[in-house]
């Protein structure tokens, strides 16, 4: 596959200095990844300026530079420079051109919001499969093309990587693709020039304020997916003021909108909710019709995810009866309030969840409490090199449980004890309902040791992750496996090996 410079930059306002017919064999935004014949995009980043790596890119074989300002290099006499106003936006448009606009080949669903994106995309994929469609998923847990699953580095990949994945999905004859769309991706234009059939909003709670700085900026980044730049059908949860504002904007523009919520002001809302330890039964009012069904997911917050997925299914053109049939046997997404199965558990239920924001932690604790006949114990921490402002709030949220064990999450380059100190600064010492245990395995083990039959343990923060980031190292660590091992160590031994 190759495109000329003129073909690559079609639809873009640019100035080509050099040969407009120069063949481009690939796209690169990191100079150390450049291959001969590539176009190298000089991205102006938060910490470094890609223009500084132009010579390295040329040395590695780049024949085309896409820049925001002309670069003057000693060995660039046969290099074509393309000057644009915004290299990020240009890279996204060029990626769409290079791969022949793959998102136009199927129905692409973009799901954004703070919490619930992963679960919603998995629900949508399952609905589409039951409806007989070939599916794909792009998101936090990984990417799936049909039955092929791959790990991912970002919730939403950089634009050339995203276009390449979408092209593979097109070539695999996917009909419906569900994609998580992060606020970073929208702000950094990773999804620019991507065509969506449906865009959906779940909720907005505190996260990523180290990047966006204010709630308003965070919201406006999410809101980009519902702007004129991304025309589509809309599914919007109106449970919070942010969703209601999105609904107002989209309605004023005349967009087709399906609203979901916990009360009758929404087009899809629950009339009955019956929470169980392994499943949930709901009766949903859907545009004047009622549908009662059970599904194998637990927790009140999953009712919201199910309603969002129901709305997306309708927007995709599926019949309500097909959606209900699909939801009745939907598999649980990895690490989303996932029950740990062990050879022995002593009557103690352990759930692993990805909850890593204050709101998500509160909802996960509340969900586990509704399932528990006894006490609820939460094990949690906060990631390093991320929004430090939410740490004390996470600490306060955790004290909704009967007992909390504060531990390490992914400390990255930060001191784990300093992160824990930030968390506990928000916790009331006098309540005496928390302890600190920096070693995550020992924290899980200690929670299991203190649990009694009928108690529930929530291990929060890492969910599906099978690693722990400590310093510059990636250590093998899976909360689900560790919890199962510690349950068996505690109860197989105490039961004489039974």
Features:
Udp-n-acetylmuramoylalanyl-d-glutamate--2,6- Diaminopimelate Ligase, Chain: A, domain 1; Protein-Tyrosine Phosphatase, Chain A; 16 helices; eight-stranded mixed sheet; single chain; MurE/MurF_N; 498 residues; globular; Mur-like_cat_sf; six-stranded mixed sheet; 33% helix; UDP-N-acetylmuramoyl-L-alanine:D-glutamate ligase
Architecture overview:
The protein has 498 residues and is of the alpha/beta class. It folds into three domains: 3-98, Udp-n-acetylmuramoylalanyl-d-glutamate--2,6- Diaminopimelate Ligase, Chain: A, domain 1 (3-Layer(aba) Sandwich); 102-327, UDP-N-acetylmuramoyl-L-alanine:D-glutamate ligase (3-Layer(aba) Sandwich); 338-494, Mur ligase, C-terminal domain (Protein-Tyrosine Phosphatase, Chain A). Strands 11-10-9-12-8-13-14-15 form an eight-stranded mixed sheet, with helices on both faces. A six-stranded mixed sheet has the order 19-20-24-21-22-23, with helices on both faces. Strands 2-7-6-5-4 form a five-stranded mixed sheet. Helix 10 (300-315) runs antiparallel to helix 11. The longest helix has 16 residues, at 300-315. The protein is globular. The mean pLDDT is 94. ATP binds at residues 113-119. It catalyses: UDP-N-acetyl-alpha-D-muramoyl-L-alanyl-D-glutamate + meso-2,6-diaminopimelate + ATP = UDP-N-acetyl-alpha-D-muramoyl-L-alanyl-gamma-D-glutamyl-meso-2,6-diaminopimelate + ADP + phosphate + H(+).
């Amino acid at each position: 596959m190759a495109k000329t410079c003129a073909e690559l930059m079609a639809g873009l306002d640019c100035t080509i200095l050099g040969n407009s017919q120069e063949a481009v064999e690939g796209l690169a935004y990191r100079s150390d990844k450049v291959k001969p014949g590539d176009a190298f995009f000089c991205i102006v980043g938060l910490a470094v300026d890609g223009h500084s790596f132009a010579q390295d890119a040329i040395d590695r074989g780049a024949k085309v530079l896409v820049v925001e300002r002309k670069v003057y290099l000693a060995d660039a006499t046969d290099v074509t420079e393309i000057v644009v106003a915004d290299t990020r936006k240009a890279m996204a448009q060029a990626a769409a051109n290079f791969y022949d606009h793959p998102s136009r080949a199927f129905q692409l669903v973009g799901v954004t919001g703070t919490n619930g994106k992963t679960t919603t995309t998995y629900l949508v994929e399952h609905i589409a499969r039951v409806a007989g469609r070939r599916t794909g998923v792009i998101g936090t847990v990984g990417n799936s093309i049909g039955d092929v699953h791959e790990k991912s580095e970002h919730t939403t990949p950089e634009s050339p990587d995203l276009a390449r994945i979408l092209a593979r999905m097109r070539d695999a004859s996917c009909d419906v693709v569900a994609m998580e769309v992060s606020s970073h991706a929208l702000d950094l234009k990773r999804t620019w020039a991507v065509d969506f059939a449906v865009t959906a909003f779940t909720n907005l709670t505190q996260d990523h304020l180290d990047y966006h700085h204010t709630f308003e900026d965070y919201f406006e980044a999410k809101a980009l997916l519902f702007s004129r730049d991304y025309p589509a059908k809309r599914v919007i949860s109106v449970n919070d003021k942010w969703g209601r504002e999105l609904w107002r904007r989209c309605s004023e523009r005349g967009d087709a909108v399906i609203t979901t919520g916990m009360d009758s002001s929404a087009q899809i809302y629950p009339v009955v909710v019956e929470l169980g330890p392994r499943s949930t039964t709901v009766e949903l009012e859907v545009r004047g019709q009622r549908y009662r069904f059970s599904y194998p997911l637990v927790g009140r917050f999953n009712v919201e995810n199910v309603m969002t997925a129901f709305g997306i299914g309708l927007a995709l053109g599926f019949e309500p009866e097909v959606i209900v049939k699909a939801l009745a046997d939907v598999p649980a997404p990895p690490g989303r309030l996932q029950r740990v199965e062990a050879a022995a558990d002593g009557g103690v239920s352990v759930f692993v969840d990805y909850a890593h924001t204050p709101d998500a932690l509160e909802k996960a604790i509340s969900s586990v409490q509704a399932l528990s006949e006894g006490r609820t114990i939460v094990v949690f921490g906060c990631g390093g090199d991320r929004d430090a402002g939410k740490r004390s709030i996470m600490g306060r949220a955790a004290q909704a449980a009967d007992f909390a064990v504060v531990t390490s999450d992914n400390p990255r380059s930060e001191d784990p004890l300093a992160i824990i100190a930030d968390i506990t600064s928000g916790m009331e010492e006098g309540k005496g309902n928390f302890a600190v245990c920096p070693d995550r395995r020992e924290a899980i083990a200690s929670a299991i040791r203190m649990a009694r039959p009928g108690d529930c343990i929530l291990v929060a923060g890492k969910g599906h992750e099978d690693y722990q980031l400590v310093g510059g190292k990636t250590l093998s660590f899976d909360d689900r496996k560790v919890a199962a091992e510690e349950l068996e160590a505690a109860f197989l031994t105490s039961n004489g090996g039974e």
